[in-house]
Every structure is written in structure tokens, then in C-alpha cells.
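Example 3.2
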Amino acid sequence: MTARTQKALTASTIPLIAIMTAVTTVVTMFVKIPTPTRGYLNLSDTMIYFCAYAFGPWVGGLVGGLGPALGDLISGYPQWAIFTFVIDGVQALIVGAAVRKLRALDVVLWSVIAGAWKVFGYFIAGGILSGWGPALGETVGNAVQAGVGLVLGFALFAAVRKAYPPLVRLGNLGVKAGA
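Structure, written as C-alpha cells:
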């Protein structure tokens, strides 16, 4: 484990991870739009992006993987849980690792790249679970889910950061509180 990883995953982050995982699980389950590949579209990306922006790659990756995967398990989609854990966790890792400063171009670019990873990952998972035809049909929905999640996740991050400036000391961004 690197020094950066050890710093990110301290005893004080365990409650944060637990709370954000619970919130992400609930958000994942709150809006469920069933899809032809026996999966569903949801608002998990909102929390995946928020956690990656606010808390960095390791906390974001754990929350991004665990929350939606638990949502799959609880909602009766256990066949998706391991795929969801990996795909959504890596999505948050990509964003959290790349967005170190709050520059609009970096946020948009890396968030779109992470969203493209998600669409690709779910295409592969859907192909394995349900066949390539249905999986291809899901790509538009997954892209929309990632795009909506990006917009809502950044809006949530901006609102929380404004209401609670010390958030930047807890998380990922190398900016001063209140900036």
C-alpha cells in the first residue's frame, strides 16, 4: 500500500465510507428503470462522481463500487453485483485520480472518460450475461445515466462544497477551503 493510499484509508475515513456507501446504495435503489438485459438504470453515477470529486480515488472507488453493488444485491440483481463493483469502482478511481484540481476542462474530460469506461464495462458485462445484441441496446441508456450522473454529481459537489468549505480538506482537491 502506498503512502497516499494509507493516508486516504485511515480509521477516520471508515465512517465516511460507510455512510457514503449507504447513501449511494439508497440512491441506486431509489430510481430503477428496468432494461432488456435484466439490469436497470439508476442514479448511482451521481454519488460515484460526487464521492470521487470530494474524497478522491480510494474513498470514491470503494463507495462507487460497494454502494451500487449492494443496491444490485438488495434489489434482486445479484448477477450484476461483481460487475457493478468493478465497473463503478474503477469509474470513481479514474475520476478521483485524474481530477486533482478543480479545473472545468479536467473535470469534464476525465468524467467523460470515466463514463465511457462505464458504458464499455456494462456492454461487456451485458454481453456476458444476456448476449451482445441486448448489451448493445443498453449502451445509450448507460451513456445517458453517466451523463446525468456527471451533471448531478458535480452540482451536488459544488453545493456541498459551498455549504461546507472544509470539504476540500477531507477530500481530493488541492484547493483552499472557501476558494
